[in-house]
Structures are given as C-alpha cells and as structure tokens.
Amino acid sequence: MYFAIVGTRDNPIYELDLPTPASSSAPNTSLKRDSVSDQKHLSQFIVHSALDIVEESMWGTNQMYLKVVDRFNEHHVSAYVTPSGAKLMLVHDAVGGDIRAFFVDVHELYVKMLMNPFSEINGSIGSQQFDAKVRALVRKHL
Amino acid sequence: MSDRRHERAGDDIWKNRTDKINGELFALTYGSLVAQLVKDYEEYAEVNAQLDKMGYNIGGRLIEDFIAKSGTTKCGSFAETADVIAKVGFRMFLGITPQVTNWSPDGKEFSLIIDENPLTEFVELPDDAVAELWYSNVLCGVLRGALEMVLLQTEVAFVSDVLRGDEMTEIRVKLIRLLDEEVPAADE
Predict the structure, then answer these.
(1) What percent of chain B has pLDDT over 90?
(2) Average pLDDT over chain B, rounded to whole?
C-alpha cells in the first residue's frame, strides 16, 4: 500500500510506503527486499500516471473524495483533492477499509501542518509527528 | 483581597470593554512575522533581538491604552505590579492569566508562567531553531517597554518555552531600578 500527497506542481509533498507482505511472491529474503523497493518505484509511477486522470475528473464533481480513479493490474488508485489543489493519492489493493474517512482525517492533519508558519506551502513535510500520525490513521481506517 | 480586585477588573475588561479578533488570524499574522524575520536575518539571536525591539515599541504605546482602559492607579509595591501585569494586563490583551511565581528573596525578580500561549497555536519550530529561537520574544519586549514608561527599568527574558520542548513557558522579570522622570534617551 502506498500513500502520497502531491502538490500543485505535481511534486510529492509526503510519501508513505507500506509494503504488504502478501504482494511479494518471492520466498527468498534478498529477492523480497528488491521487490519491496521496486514496489515503491512502481507505486510512484502508478500515482504519477493517475494524476492526469485526477485532474480531469476533479472538475466534474464538487466532491473532494474522488473514489477509485484508476486501476493498474491489481492495484487501485483512490484520490482526494483538497481545496488548495493538493492531491491525496492512495494505491491499494481492492480490500475494504474506510478510505474516505482516512482521507478526511489526513486532510485535517495536513491543514494543521499548513497552519505552522514555518512550513512552506508546496514544500515537503518531514515532520516525524506527522508521519507517526498518518501511520496511526492507516492502522485505524485501513 | 486585592488579588480578587485585579482579577475581577481584568475579567470585566476582557469580557465587556475590549474588541476581539479571531485567535487564528492573530496567530497566523504573528507566525508569518516571525517566519519572515527568520528568512531575513538568518541568525536566530538577531531574530530574538528584533522581536524584543518590536515588543519594546509596542509596550511603550500599549501602556497608555492599558492605563486608560483599566484605570489602574500607582502600584504600592513591585509585587502589586506583578499582579496587575498578570491579572489585568495579560488578561486584557491576550485573554490569558499567567501565574506569578518564583519570587526572588529580595522581591525584585519574579516569573510568569504561561499555560496557553495564543501566539503559538499550530506552531512547530524547525529543527535548527529549537535551541536558539524564543518564538514569543515580542512579549518580553512589550513588558520591558511598558514598564519603562511607568519608570521601572527591568530586564525581561524567556527562561523556558514549551515550543522548545521544555516543560513550561516561563518569563523572568527582573527589576533593575526605579527611574526618575527624565526625557528618554531616544528623543535626543
């Protein structure tokens, strides 16, 4: 599973990579490590190519949550667009979990980060606290 | 007894006789001020000094507004001054009441402990600032400037700040001396 916040210039503001053990089929540990880092690159690629679709579909609706916008093999891409144009993208398998609630909570966290005068608007978020909180939300909703 | 009087005065002014603005707007405005200073000056010590200077100017003007609105008369002792600052001054302008503690044995120094600082809502200091920047340093300048206008020369500085990871936010106020009525040096 891979979650990213993409800024208005298609730049990644925040990334969270959670390799699920089921997705790597290699029993050998060294192969597993390779496929895990491959996973991340693949996920980034998937998100990047889904960005166009997000930009198209966001004008068709006045909702922020866009549900599943793209599919790649067995990966689904869900998207959520914030009013300021940041896109929250989630690459996941077709499993359950309350994705909308997850997006809403992360949006709230994101807004709080933006209120910090020392943060830059399209800049990357390096804060450990933010990372820890997003991980907690993943565990809670997904 | 006089405690209650100041408390009630402060509460009354805060509730009835001041205009209020949105706390988030206030925090964001102050935040962009500090962020811009950090970008301009690059050295955190310099930013602290600038915040103090700005506060000093604010304090010199604020004291007039304070006396006009609160009708406070001359304080009998430095202890009373501390009380008035915490219960009436802070309450009037920031809506909070810091605690006055840690009096020195000669009665010339005390600490103000601030529970909730309206300036620092949502603020997280960048890593390199944590050891050096006193984010709310403007408050020290304000106190120093205001007290100088009522002829009390003081040194005011932060001792600890929750933003820096300390347990509490504490400002130390030290009375240096009582001034005579003279033209301030800056006017010459």
Answers:
(1) 76
(2) 91
Decide if B123 and A116 are in contact by the 8 Å CB cutoff: yes
**Torsion sign across C-alpha atoms B24, B30, B35, B39:** positive
Specify which residues A12 forms β-bridges with.
Answer: A6
Residues of chain B neighbouring A129 (CB-CB closer than 8 A): 124
Read off the pLDDT of each residue in A56-70 and give the average, rounded to a whole number. 89
Q: How far apart are alpha carbons B26 and B135 in whole angstroms? A: 14
pLDDT grade for B185, boundaries at 50, 70 and 90: low
Reported as a pLDDT band with limits 50, 70 and 90, residue A24 is very low
Residue A116 to residue B28, Cβ atoms within 8 A: no
CB B79 within 8 A of CB B101: no
Which of B122, B125, B126 comes nearest A115 by C-beta? B122
Q: Verify whether the Cβ–Cβ distance B31 to A127 is below 8 Å.
A: no
What is the reported pLDDT for A23?
47
Buried b / exposed e over A100-126, threshold 16 CB at 10 Å, is eebbbbbbebbeebbebbbbeeeeebe
Query: DSSP character for A60?
Result: T
CA distance B138 to B166: 19
